[in-house]
UniProtKB/TrEMBL annotation:
Pathway: Protein modification; lipoprotein biosynthesis (diacylglyceryl transfer). One of its GO terms (molecular function) is phosphatidylglycerol-prolipoprotein diacylglyceryl transferase activity. Belongs to the Lgt family. The chain crosses the membrane at residues 25-45, 65-85, 105-123, 135-153, 186-206, 213-230, 242-269. It comes from Bradyrhizobium ottawaense. This is Phosphatidylglycerol--prolipoprotein diacylglyceryl transferase. Catalyzes the transfer of the diacylglyceryl group from phosphatidylglycerol to the sulfhydryl group of the N-terminal cysteine of a prolipoprotein, the first step in the formation of mature lipoproteins. Its main location: membrane.
Length: 281
């Protein structure tokens, strides 16, 4: 049966090395995700038909916002990991909080960091919070896809043990048990990245950006669903294990997203699309 297992590719931890400078796969995923997301956001803002008129923000504003959202992702993601996943360790080793190169980021924390960045930037620049949230979440699956691929390359956050007869089961080099496991990082890349991006892109084509909050709500709802589905194949963090009734921390943090996302979608539908200037009221 072992012949059916797929050998885990032997990736080097460093993606790019120039002299004394080295960029790891995880850092490269963040960099590429932010750059590609920024370019995609600019392309959406240039298409007035998607918004039913002029976009609610300028290209210069979205350029400035990139720094804000980057800080939100990094600070929120690290803070979320410290609080949600490994607080006792960081209480005993506070200096480790700043060693980002060792890994340890939380999507839910990063998302909350983005929410703060969106609200703060929108308030300071007189932009609709919901519309800025729409454009931010429309591009977010790009970063999620690259981040999960980086998890796979690093051989971390592997899946639960499975039968060796599963054709794509893998044994991860860093797994002390050396059991065949689901490559759950790739499952999550497909659901949180490709599937979520595709659904949101279709919604945008159908005019969802004309209803502020619609894309934001859809992102939150669908991500919550895909994360909960992915958690059924992902091995829980060793320091946490399974929680009540077999739930994982990722599941618990995703449950409120289902409620919030549903509420935002309902409100966007009821609010309707804004009428263009000069329309009969």
């Amino acid at each position: 049966m072992q012949l059916l297992l797929i050998d885990f590719p032997a990736f080097k931890p460093i993606a790019l090395e120039i002299g004394p400078f080295a960029i790891r796969w995880y850092a490269l995923a963040y960099i590429c995700g932010i750059v590609f997301g920024w370019l995609y956001a600019r392309s959406l803002l240039k298409k007035e038909r998607l918004w039913g008129g002029p976009a609610p923000m300028s290209l210069l504003q979205i350029d400035d916002f990139i720094l804000w959202v980057t800080l939100g992702i990094i600070l929120g993601g690290r803070t979320g990991y410290v609080l949600f996943y490994n607080l006792p360790f960081f209480i005993d080793h506070p200096a480790a909080i700043f060693r980002l190169w060792e890994g340890g980021m939380s999507f839910h924390g990063g998302f909350l960091g983005c929410v703060v960045a969106v609200m703060w930037f929108a308030f300071r620049n007189g932009i609709s919070i919901l519309s800025l949230g729409d454009i931010t979440t429309a591009v977010a699956p790009v970063g999620l896809l690259l981040g999960r691929i980086a998890n796979f390359i690093n051989g971390e956050l592997w899946g639960r043990a499975t039968d060796a007869s599963l054709p794509w089961a893998m044994i991860f080099p860093n797994d002390p048990t050396q059991l065949p496991r689901h490559p759950s990082q790739l499952y999550e890349a497909g659901m949180e990245g490709i599937l979520l991006f595709t659904v949101l892109a279709v919604m945008i084509r159908l005019g969802a950006l004309k209803r502020p909050g619609m894309i934001l709500g859809a992102f939150i709802l669908i991500y919550g669903l895909t994360r909960i589905a992915g958690e059924h194949f992902r091995e829980p963090d060793a320091q946490l294990g399974f929680l009540w009734g077999g739930l994982t921390m990722g599941m618990l943090l995703s449950l409120p997203m289902l409620i919030v996302g549903g509420i935002l979608i309902v409100l966007a539908v009821r609010r309707g699309a804004p009428k263009p200037a000069g329309a009969v009221r």
